[in-house]
Automatic annotation (TrEMBL):
Reactions catalysed according to its record: Hydrolysis of terminal, non-reducing (1->4)-linked alpha-D-glucose residues with release of alpha-D-glucose
Domain Glycosyl hydrolase family 13 catalytic: 3-227
Lineage: Eukaryota, Metazoa, Ecdysozoa, Arthropoda, Chelicerata
Top EC class, one word: hydrolase
EC number per UniProt: 3.2.1.20
GO BP terms, alphabetized: carbohydrate metabolic process
Pfam families linked to this entry: Alpha-amylase
Species whose genome carries this gene: Araneus ventricosus
Domain of life: Eukaryota
InterPro entries xref list: GH, GH13_cat_dom, Glyco_hydro_b, O16G_dom_2
A GO term for molecular function: alpha-1,4-glucosidase activity
Protein name in the entry: alpha-glucosidase
Amino acid sequence: LNIHGESAWTWNEERKQFYLSTFGKHLPDLNLRNPLVRNELKDIITYWMEEDVDGFNVIAASHLVENSYLFNEPFLMSNKAKNYKNVDHVFTIDQYENLDLFAEWKQIMNSFSTKKILIAGVSGSSHKSRLYYGNETFPLATLVYNTEFSHINENVTGSKLRWHFASWTSDVPSFGWPAWMIGSKTKPRLESRVGDLLDGIHMIVMLAKGTPITFSGDEFGVSSFPNEDNTQISMKRESHLNIFRKLLELRNDYAVTHGIQQYPIVTDKVFSLLRSINSKGFLVAVNLRNDPITLDFTGTSSQLPSKATLMLQSGHFESSSLSNKVQQKVSLNNIYLGPKHSALFSFGPSVNVHNGRKRLKM
């Protein structure tokens, strides 16, 4: 089956043959077992490398090569409904020959004097996805991102978020670096999926270990659905964008680039993320539900002090108990979060990376 639940084979009247079309009739699959096709791709990569592009993003890297016998794949469920998710894609996803292709492409990139980047977008298990990094002797992909985050919506639980980060981060080899795709042109807009959680999701992925991959416009809350109140839209977008810009600045902080990652309080209704190093760090707290909640971080991590400075909060809760305390120290034993409210706290001296050197601000 193709991803739309239809037959993956499409008849071509001119050639009197079927062609494989995993992503739809308008997108024929290349036969990457054919040496002529592989050589053509290598020529294309070489051409663009010589034009001094920085690298390539291989979208749907898990689907590059199919089993050579083109077996039918078994159903996961007994009802055998024609649904792509009901099929166990053992013959079409994450075949080991995919790694051979990445090795060929990386060898071309390594022949150039300037460093080139090879990015892999994967959709298989986290365990198999780590294979796209290669090994320390011959690294393959510079970044491997998964599409799990592009499916989250306003019903996401804290437990699901922790599982996602913990499982994917643990499967990244020591020489690799994780990445998170939170939006793309093939998915509904992030704001349309998560609503008032937009700022909270940005706080999480921008400060988590890894590289976030966003879709242009999601940073200021572009929606998939029209809204007639243009004044209200402009105010919300400005607020979202200001928060996103501040988060971009914080990504250069030493605690974010080198700190450990912990999850002090996680329930189905709450998610929190802690990045810290040498008594310096950041704490993100997000209320995922419509009911207000009060959090007590006492004893949840040895890295957390009793008080921290409120740096940011989601812009749609100006009337919350934290609204007048931005840039002020607050006690972490009594943090009130309104419905779908998110807040970012900092503690310790300000440590930044500048020209490769640490700078300490007291």
